[in-house]
Amino acid sequence: MYQIVPGAPGEQHVIDRAHGSPRKKKFQQDSRPMVLAGLLGGALVLAAVIAWFYYSLSLRKAQLLKTESLDLKKDGYIIRNHAGDAVFTMAFRSGTLDLDSCTKEGHILGCTRSETGKLNFFIQTVREKDTVMCYHIRWEELLDVNSVEHAMAYNDSHWYGGAEMATQYWPMRNQGEEEPSPFITSDVYSNRNAFGGILERYWLSSNATAIKINDSVPFHLGWSEKNRTLRFVARYKGSPFKPLVGHSGFPELSYRVCVGLDVTSLHKYMVRRYFPKPISVPSHEVFRKPVWSTRAFYKSAVTQEKLLRYASDIIKYGFKWSHLELDDRYTTDYGEFDFDPQKFPNASGMFEKLRKDGFQVTLWTHPFINYDSINFGVALEKGLFVREPSGDLPALVRWWNGIGAILDFTNPEASKWFLSHLNSLKRHYNVTSFKFDAGETSYLPRQFSTLVPLSDPSTFTRRYSEMAIPFSSRAELRVGYQSQNISCFFRIINRDSVWGYELGLKSIIPTVLTISILGYQFVLPDMIGGNAYPNRTAGLINETHALPDKELYIRWLELSAFMPAMEFSIPPWAYDDEVVKIARKFSEIHETEVAPRVLELAGEVVGTGDPIIRPLWWIAKDDKAAFKIDSQFLIGDDLLVAPVLEPGEQERDIYLPAGHWKSKKGTYKGPMYLTDYPVDLDELAYFLWVET
C-alpha cells in the first residue's frame, strides 16, 4: 500500500510502505514535464526581452525619421499641419533612401546613402515663427547620375503660382502628361506650350503649404494629370543649365517647404521672407490715366502723320492720357536708335507739337540688332553680342522681326552702350521713358556663351530687366525673374482678340492673379481689346484694321478699368459713339474710384509686397468656394469686382464671401451666390464691403 506523507512546502513524497524508501525512478519520470516547462518559460522570457529590444530600436528609429511634423520614408515624406492632417506629400522618383544611413543631430535629419550609392540628403527644420514651420530639403547626388526627381502630390488642394502661361487658369489646371522641361522664361505668344516671360520658382496651395525651389537648382518642371502631381527635376545633361565653376556637375535638388495656419498669412510670410520688394511706386499718372499705344492699331505701319492724328483724336474725343507710346516701327532698321527719315521726316518738330499738346512720349525698344542694321558691325567690333559657344562669333537668332544678334547684358560694356543710346534719344527728343520688349531666354540660341557664364539662363532676363531701372517711373517690361524690386510696370504678354482662356479675355484675371502672387504688383494688363491680329481676332476685319468684336472690346475695357493701369491702342472711336461713351465712362470710374484705392495699396507694396489685385480667398481663408473663383477679384480687401466675360451675356452669377457687400443694386450678406445678377452692356458689377 501507498501513503502520501508531507514534505517540504510545494513537495510531496511517495513512500513504499513495504520497503520504507521513496520511489526515485517514478519521481524522476514525473519531474521531466516541469523541467521542460521551465525551459520553455525561460525561452519565452528571452524572446520577450529580444522583442522589447527591437521594439525599442524601432521606436527610436521611428523617432529618428520624424522631425517635427514631417515623417520620412525611404521613398518620400509626408508633412502634417498643426491639426495633424497630412497636407504635403513628396515622393522620391529617381531613387530611394537607405534609412540605415540616416542620423539626426538637433534639427537636421541626414542620410548618406541611397539604394544606388552615396549621396548628401538632409532635412533641416526651421520654425521661423509660431505660425509657420519650414523644412529645408536637399538631395545632392555624389555619383554621376542623370537627374534627381521628386514628385509633389496635389493632396486634394488647389495650387497657385509658378509662371505666366499662354492658357492660364486659376487655380492651376495642368492638363495631360508633361515631361519635365527647363523652367526658364519664354515667349508664350510664339510658343504656347512653354513657360512665360514672368516666372518664379514658387507655388502656394489652398491647404496653407508653399514650396520654393532654390536658385542653385538646374530646375525642370513637369506634371501628371493622371497622378495629380507636379514633377520637380534637377538636371544638367541635355539642358540649358550649366554647373557653376568648380561645381561637380552632379545634380542637386534643394527647396524649402513651409506650412502655415492659413493660405493668406503663409503667403504674406513667404513674400516678406523670400521676395525682393519694389523700392518705390512708379508714375501716379499711369495709375490714374490710360496709356495710349500705337501697337495694335497701326502695327509697324506707324508714321509721323498717323501718330499726330492719333494724338489729335485722343483730344478730339475727350479722353485723358498718362502718355503716348510709340511702338514698332519708327527706326529704319531694327537695332538703330534714331527715326526713319522717310516715315518721320521731322521727328523733332513732331515731338515739339506733341509736347505743346500736353503729351509725354515713350518709345519701344528691344535687345536685338539685326544683321542689316548699321549698328551690327559696331556692336560686333566692340564684342557686345551673345556669342556662339566658341566665343568667336555672334550667335544669330530669329525673332519676330527678322534675324540678328542679341546684346549680352552680362557684359557691362554692352549694357553701357545700350543705355547710352536710350539716353541719347531721351535727351535729343525729350522722350519720357521706354517700353522694353522681349527679354525672354527663349530668344537665346540653344548653345551660347556670355561674358559672365550663366548657370541659370533666366538670369539673362534679370539682367535685361535691369535696363529699365533708370527709366522706371514710366518704363514697361514684359519679363520678370527675381525682378520684383524694379519699380516699373510689368505688362502681361500680348493678348489675342478672343474671349477664351488661351491669351483671351478670360485669361486676364488668372494671369494678373498669378503674377501678383509671384510678387509683381504694378501690372499693365496689355491693350484693351487685344492685339487684333487678323488670324487671331473675333470681330470685324476690313482693309485697314482688324477690329475686335464690339461686345468683346466693351467687356475688355470694363475689366481694364478695374486693373492697376489701363492701356488703349485700338481707339473707341474706331467703332461708334456708343463705345466712345462707354469708354469715357469707365476711364472716369478708373480715375476717380479705382486709382485712389490702387495708389494707396501701391504705397503698401513697397513695405509688404502684398498684392494689389487679390484672389477672393485673401479674405475668405477657409471658404472652399473662394479657392476656385477665377472670374472675380478683389482690389485690396474691400472692393470685389465681377466682370462679364462671356459673349452675349447681360447677367452673371456672383459669389460674395462672408460679410456685407453693397452695390448699386442693393446690400447683400455673404457668403452667398447671386444668381443671374443683371449686368447691362455698359455696366460692370462691383461691390464694396461695408460694416454693419
TrEMBL record:
Molecular function GO labels: hydrolase activity, hydrolyzing O-glycosyl compounds
Stated name of the protein: Myosis regulating glycosidase
Keyword Cell membrane among record annotations: no
Signal sequence extent: none
Keyword Transmembrane (UniProt): yes
Stretches for region Disordered: 1-29
Record lineage: Eukaryota, Metazoa, Chordata, Craniata, Vertebrata
Organism: Xiphophorus maculatus
Stated family: Belongs to the glycosyl hydrolase 31 family.
PANTHER family, per the entry: GLYCOSIDASE FAMILY 31, MYOGENESIS-REGULATING GLYCOSIDASE
Domain Glycosyl hydrolase family 31 C-terminal: 609-683
Keywords linked to the UniProt accession: Glycosidase, Hydrolase, Membrane, Transmembrane, Transmembrane helix
CDD domains listed in its UniProt record: GH31_NET37 (cd06592)
Regions that span the bilayer: 34-55
Domain called Glycoside hydrolase family 31 TIM barrel: residue spans: 292-443, 505-589
One BP annotation, GO: carbohydrate metabolic process
Matching SUPFAM superfamilies: (Trans)glycosidases, Glycosyl hydrolase domain
Pfam entry (one): Glyco_hydro_31_3rd
